[in-house]
Each structure stands twice: as structure tokens, then as C-alpha cells.
Structure prediction request, 682 residues.
Amino acid sequence: MHELRKDPILSRWVAVLKDSMPPTFYLEKNIEHVMYDAENNDCILCQGSEDKTPPEIFAIREIGTPPNASNWHTRVIPKINPVFQIEGDLGRKGNGMYDKMNSIGANEIIIESPSHNTPPEDMGISQMIKVITTYKNRLSELEKDPRLRYTLIYKDCGKTAGELFHHPHSQVIATPVIPKGIKGELDGAKAYFYYKERCIFCDILNEEIRTGERIIMETDHFIAFIPYAPRFPFEYWIMPKRHNCAFQDISEEEVKDLSLVLMTTMKKMRTLFKNPSYNYVLHTAPNRMPRKDHWHTLGEDFHWHMEITPYLVTKSGFEWDAEFYILTTSPEDAAKYIKEV
Amino acid sequence: MHELRKDPILSRWVAVLKDSMPPTFYLEKNIEHVMYDAENNDCILCQGSEDKTPPEIFAIREIGTPPNASNWHTRVIPKINPVFQIEGDLGRKGNGMYDKMNSIGANEIIIESPSHNTPPEDMGISQMIKVITTYKNRLSELEKDPRLRYTLIYKDCGKTAGELFHHPHSQVIATPVIPKGIKGELDGAKAYFYYKERCIFCDILNEEIRTGERIIMETDHFIAFIPYAPRFPFEYWIMPKRHNCAFQDISEEEVKDLSLVLMTTMKKMRTLFKNPSYNYVLHTAPNRMPRKDHWHTLGEDFHWHMEITPYLVTKSGFEWDAEFYILTTSPEDAAKYIKEV
Prediction:
């Protein structure tokens, strides 16, 4: 027996199975288990191979070491075959009834660790703080380019999730338009704000704390929870308690706390499913969205957060095309299973 | 070098590679090749196994044969573990700040052929006409239930596409809400109609015929073409020339012509990629959308069509989450390759 649930931000209905499947159901299926147990001398992202990559754009490194030398903690390099390129103008044009423009933007690889075989959830809190700080740097820097409307930071881990390298890394894509998946979320949050005069994410935060049944972890500054109507079983979100639309305005205290929550929850999820492939995506406000101006409500209707999705199931054509997802484990059961690990 | 293109209906930007990859690029990759060369005595959808399925809902069969006997051409049965069920009331309810309802609807399997091992594109025109006629029957019947808002007919072929059975079949899902993927298309077409007072699909049809560069096939009643900004390489659409929002109002002439276009284009696509997994989805107006009333413009802003998607690539997290697709073959090249087969 299923029940239908509506995602309050996107107005997307999903069907949730009430006689929920336990995590063992997914392990029986053919899910990809991502192993990090081998060194790889050919890996160009490893420490010592700095001369095999394009020159670095940014790095957190040992004091006194020059760019592109060893002894770094995190390192940002351009993607080798980029889809978006930084040089040129936007070239917005009509083409008969259609519209096109040049593929202006940024494509960067964030190397999360000098070491090839340390899973992100085991890298240690001080390293994770450096990764999060690198995210903050890229968002702050790319926001300065007036041609770029959005900066997306995401991580693909495992072949099913479309990973590029096996070495721990994230990716940055900055685009001259707002990607449709993000636009839908921004529009949904704006419509709610117009109707309620409250941030929908703040309301979700309060509702999740009130019921508690979908929460995986709570700290001073964050909650991690399974959303009420997710796309996939065991998809979870990490959301700051303080209202803030832009990730780059995160405080030092919050960076520490986020590192702890991200590592702890990923470790639990990894243990439960024997390290499945997954991705996570940082959802933040568009570039240059005015947020300091106290005369207007701009920035009041969005709230940055992270969405983490393990790949445990194969989508059908119905899910693909109609965007009507079928959940085989209820969010409440999924939260309980992850919490108990 | 990529260029960005905007889908005019969904306002979704995609990146299109201009130094386009030829079809051989996809064959080198690990795409699934769906074979139909074996009989299967255990298949419950085969002729002769009628007693192993739930009783049929509808069938096109030899004159004089009783329901659930052999000698049928197409047969519709309920899905065995349905997500949606026909009995009960909608039970719309609040749940704190969230919304839910009962999973009322229909889940049906359309068996397209009595024979296990005939690919749809080789079943012959008279059999394909019966399949299309069965689609028309299901849409007309399910539309009568006032609880159901939308009926989606789709086909998953191959494991990658999420197929349920290997025997040629399509599926019907009728839902008490409009699935988000369809809603976005309806809203986009409505916004265009509001602005231009013309059907966006009619405009696309005229534009595609005018330029001709993305057309695969044209007949008296239909065009088959690669859309200007698709999600996937070699995705193509079949669209009737006559403006008509609802598939169930298709004429007999159009049924014949559609059968020819669907079989011919699928045969070309199958030959080009050695039978990849694919799905197709029939996009039609919501149930009971008023369309006969000449006082109003209802039904003037939508235009039924079919979308056919071969699975040649794996999506990355960026494509998944941000819905920003990267096309490795341009629509113009893809149309040329399919047309030339």
C-alpha cells in the first residue's frame, strides 16, 4: 500500500510505500560498492603529480610552499575538457524561434585530499573543514564575475553517479543561466514566501524538529533529515538552523559543525549500504543575489542546504519522464535506519 | 566547443557539443543491446498463458473468442503489484505543514503482441495499428473516472530503461494528480499561448518544417524530429500536424500514419545503435480537459506528441540535480545520422 506525498517546495507528488523495505532489500540488489583501498600511481590528482595537471586556481597549502608544488591540503584545478569556458562574451542570439548563447562559465575540479585512498568520511575533521572552506572560496570568487548567474558545487562518487576520477574530488560548474533544477526550487520558495511571508526552508526546519521522525542528526547549527517527499529512498538533506540564503556567508563555527555533520552522516550511510555510489549537491542562492540590503526582502525566501543521494535503485521511464517517483522505503523508516547505525 | 540552447517549452538550458560525436562513439561505450531472439515458456504475457495473469481489462481479439481465452492481438491486464489502486476515495489530508492523499489510480500492462520475440518495430503495420488503438481505448476509458487527473502511457524497453517484462509491452499509469514532468510542459505551453496567442507546438512544427535540419521523417499527418534542445543525444519526438491536445481524438487515418512513422523511425534508431534500451512516452492533455467548447481557448495551448529516448549515456550528478544536460551529438547531426540509415 502506497500513500502520495507532495514536496512542498517543488509541488512534486511522489508515491511512498507504507510497508517499507528494510536496507537489506537494497543490498540484495545490484548496487555499486565504491572501494577506496588501492593506491594508484597513474592518478594525476595525487600529491606529487602536480606537474601533470593544469596550473592550480586555488589551494590550501602548507605555509611557504609555492603554487603547484607538493604539500597542499586541497587544490582547485580547471577541468581538462570543459563544457563551459571563462573566455569570451555571452553572445545571446535568436535562432529562428529558438534561443542560444555561448557556453561561458567555469568548470573546476576540487581535489579534496592529497591522498588517493581516503574516503571523504574518513579524512578527519580538520581536512573536511579545509574542503568546506575551499567550497566557500570558489563561491565567493566566482560570484564576482558579472556574466555568471549560478555556481553549483557537487560531488559524484562511483561510476553510477558519473564520477570522473576515483581520487576524492568535487566539481564546480558556474553557468551564465540558472540551471532548471535550481530554478524550480527558487521559484517554489518564492511562491511560498509570497503566500506566507515566511521562508519555506525555515518552516520545514521547524516542522522537522517538532516531529523529529525524519531527523538523522541534530547539532547546535544544523539538522540532517530525510525530506518528507524525496525522489529516492535514503536521500537526505543537511540544513543550517540560521536563515541564510548564501553558502559563502557561512560562519567559522558553522563550517566546523557542517564538517562534523557531513562526515558523521556519510559514515552512517556508507556503513549501512557498504559504501554505495552517491552524489551530493550544494544548493545556494544565485550569484549576486542581493542579501545585505535591509530595505528589501531579497534573500529572505531562500535558505542554502546540501542534498545527499545514494544510488540504490534504477529509475523507470515513468520516473524519468513524468518525474513521479516511487519510494520503496518511507522517509520515517529510512531516518530510523540511518540514525541507528 | 559547446553552445547553450534553451528548450522553448520548459525554459531549460542545455549545452550542445558543436564538434559532434558520431553514432560509433556510443557503440564503443557500454550501452545495453536488447535482444528478442528467444522464446520463453515461463513468460506470463505470451499467448497460451492467459490463466496466469489477472483477468483482462480490455483486449483486441479474434471475433467470437471469449475474454481471457487465446487468439488475441493486444491484451490489457492490471499490474500485479500496483502502486496505484482503483478502489477507495482520494483522502486528501494535511500532515503538519505537508500534504498527502491516497494512492488512487490505475496501473495497467498493455501486451503489444501474442508473440514473445517480435520487436515492436518488426511486428507489422496492422499489429502496430492495434497497439495504437489500444492506447486510444485506455485513454478514453480512464478519462471517465472523475478522480483521475492524468493518464500516462509509456514503454520501457531494456533493463537500463527499467523494463518489467521482456515480452513487448507498454504500461498505463493513471494518477489523481498531474505528474510534475507533465505539469512543467503544460505550464510552459500555457505561458507561451498567453504571450503569443499561438500553440507553441504548432510553432515548433512550422519552424522544424521550415528549416528541415532536425527532421527525420515527414508524412501527410506527422513529423518525426530531434528537438532543438533535448535532454539526450538522439532523443526524438513524433508530432501530429493537425492541432489536437488529446491523443484519444486521433483519427483513423492518423492512427495508420502514426503506426508507420513509429515503426520506421524505431527501426532506423534500432539499426543505428544495434537495438539500445529506450523508452517512449505519450504526452497528452490532462483527463477531462475541456476541448469541444468553441467559446473558450481551452485545449488550444497543448498538442499531443510522443517522446522517444534511447539510453546511450550515463547521467552525472550535475545533470541529475541541476537538470542541465550536456549533449555530445548535436540535434542536427543526430537527425542526419538517423535519416541516412
Notes: The mean pLDDT of chain B is 92.
